[in-house]
Design goal:
The complex is a heterodimer. Helix content of chain A is 72%, strand content 0%. Chain A is built from four helices and no strands. In chain A, helix 1 (4-14) packs across helix 2, helix 1 (4-14) packs parallel to helix 3 and helix 2 (21-33) crosses helix 3. The relative contact order of chain A is 0.12. Chain B is mainly alpha-helical. Chain B contains nine helices and no strands. In chain B, helix 1 packs parallel to helix 3 (57-75). The termini of chain B are far apart. The mean pLDDT of chain B is 87. The chains are: A mainly alpha, B mainly alpha. At the A-B interface, helix 1, helix 3 and helix 4 of A face helix 1, helix 2, helix 6 and helix 9 of B.
Chain lengths: 76, 185
């Protein structure tokens, strides 16, 4: 039987289709009996979903930084 | 067929902020991110003869910036390599027999107040920034940029097994960080 550590690794790899049929079966058996690894697998799916919503933030170049960059570009 | 042209005189105003936001997400030190943006414009000016107009100038500048960011990390390769071997994060989560430690057991997440919630997204971003540099880089390339594992391993010159170790550790730390800073607070 897989350990929880092995199941958590397999659970992450499964999302990329990167596990063998044998490992997939072992993972299914493990998560059938282990509610915590089942929760972990659900959390992985949610994490992937959350990060797909992330935006690039609101940082801006200051007027001085823009001016400096423009003057550097003009040298070329 | 070339359908786009370059307008370097408008680059800083049109794309400077967008490029900076992209860079800061991947290189958290703002000054370095800004320098990478500046370097992107300089590289673009120097290689404008190579621009064939097949993609928009915005996409072309982003491609150059991505390449600059990877170069930045390649220069730090030695210090990043230590992230691979020195991190014993797994021991924080599992006991000697490989089972979850009692205080690290995964909990049920209720999602109704999480998605599209700005406060939650701030927690999420804070947790991502708390990963070590190599974990953050691999995680960002995979889950934000959508690169495949093979490409990431090639670009960062890491083995497939190192890649999976990094992703595993990153996800263990992220879920724990979210539980502490969102569900248990």
């Amino acid at each position: 039987m897989m350990t929880c550590k092995e199941a958590s690794e397999a659970s992450i790899q499964k999302t990329e289709g990167g596990i063998s049929l044998r490992t997939r079966w072992d993972l299914a058996m493990h998560t059938f009996f282990c509610k915590y690894c089942k929760l972990f697998a659900k959390q992985q799916a949610l994490l992937n979903q959350f990060f797909s919503y992330e935006s690039d933030g609101t940082d801006e170049l200051s007027p001085t930084e823009k001016s400096n960059i423009k003057s550097i570009i003009q040298r070329f | 067929m070339a359908s786009h042209s370059l307008h370097p005189e408008t680059w800083v105003e049109s794309f400077g902020d967008l490029l900076l936001r992209f860079a800061v997400k991947r290189v958290p030190e703002r000054d370095i991110a800004r320098d990478l943006v500046q370097d992107t414009f300089v590289t673009a000016i120097k290689s404008k003869e190579n621009y064939r107009g097949e993609i928009s100038e915005k996409n072309w500048l982003f491609l150059i910036l991505k390449s600059r960011i990877l170069d930045h990390y390649k220069k730090k390769k030695e210090s990043l390599a230590s992230d691979l071997v020195s991190d014993d994060d797994n021991d924080q989560f599992f006991g000697p027999k490989g089972n979850w430690l009692q205080d690290k057991l995964p909990k049920e997440w209720t999602t109704d107040k999480m998605v599209r919630n700005n406060e939650f997204m701030d927690v999420l971003e804070g947790c991502r920034q708390n990963l070590n540099e190599m974990q953050r880089l691999v995680f960002t390339m995979k889950y934000i940029d959508g690169e495949d594992a093979e490409h990431i391993c090639k670009e960062l010159d890491i083995s497939s097994s190192n890649y999976w170790v990094l992703v595993h550790r990153a996800k263990l730390k992220l879920r724990r960080c979210i539980e502490i800073n969102w569900f248990e607070r």
